[in-house]
Amino acid sequence: MRIISGKLKGRRINPPKNLPVRPTTDMSKEALFNILNHHFNFSELTILDLFAGTGNISYEFASRGAESIVSVDGDYGCVNFIKKTAKEFDLNIVPFKADVFKFIEKHKTSYDIVFADPPYDFTQEQFEKIVTDILNLELISEDGMLIIEHSKFTKLEHLPHFSFEKSYGGSVFTFFEFEQEEIEDDEDESEYDEEDTWDREEE
């Protein structure tokens, strides 16, 4: 596993072979971060990495200077490896051992980027639940992005807030964003409600 860019560029990280993971390939990871380079300034980003596995994606964000990274996985071995690696390289990664679905339900913080790489054998319904839960619970900020990695056999483009998708070999990255028009409409409605309440109080 190789870090593509940033302060750890070229560094190889070797996780234990017994971890129950399927790391994102270097080719796919490089393509993903080339896309993100055109959308974000990494030094200002807050990141939530779900189904983090070995921490592959978290390390890449940390190497590029992301402000903070939270990594969540349900496997003790994965979380301990992320914790050990983050300490070794002095990376601002906070790992959590948790069931991802339960973590999503209870978490109240929003992030600039939420990345999720569930097991490819998850059902279509499980993938859809991840997307809808993250969006409905407002875990991404107004200008943020949700990225789901999945196989070509899973289809997510029909879900609300779908933006685009990119395929690399057998892997697909599907991107979700809140459109600016939706954000402006929400703000307008909020302003109207406040004015309406004020008028009623004056009466």
Fold blueprint:
Blueprint: H1 26-37, E1 46-50, H2 56-63, E2 68-73, H3 76-88, E3 93-97, H4 100-106, E4 111-116, H5 124-136, E5 140-151, E6 162-168, E7 171-176, H6 180-202
Parallel strand pairs: 1-2, 1-4, 2-3, 4-5
Antiparallel strand pairs: 5-7, 6-7
What would a concise description of this structure say?
This protein is 37% helix and 23% strand.
Features:
single chain; 203 residues; alpha/beta; Rossmann fold; 6 helices; 37% helix; 23% strand; disordered C terminus
The fold-level CATH name is Rossmann fold
Biggest β-sheet: strands ordered side by side in the sheet: 3-2-1-4-5-7-6
Molecular shape = globular
Based on the coordinates given, report the CATH architecture.
3-Layer(aba) Sandwich
Query: How many E strands?
Result: 7
The CATH superfamily bears the name Vaccinia Virus protein VP39
Query: Class by helix and strand content?
Result: alpha/beta
SSE order: HEHEHEHEHEEEH
Q: Provide mean pLDDT, rounded.
A: 88
Protein name: Methyltransferase
GO molecular function: methyltransferase activity; nucleic acid binding
Organism: Myroides albus
Keywords: Methyltransferase, Transferase
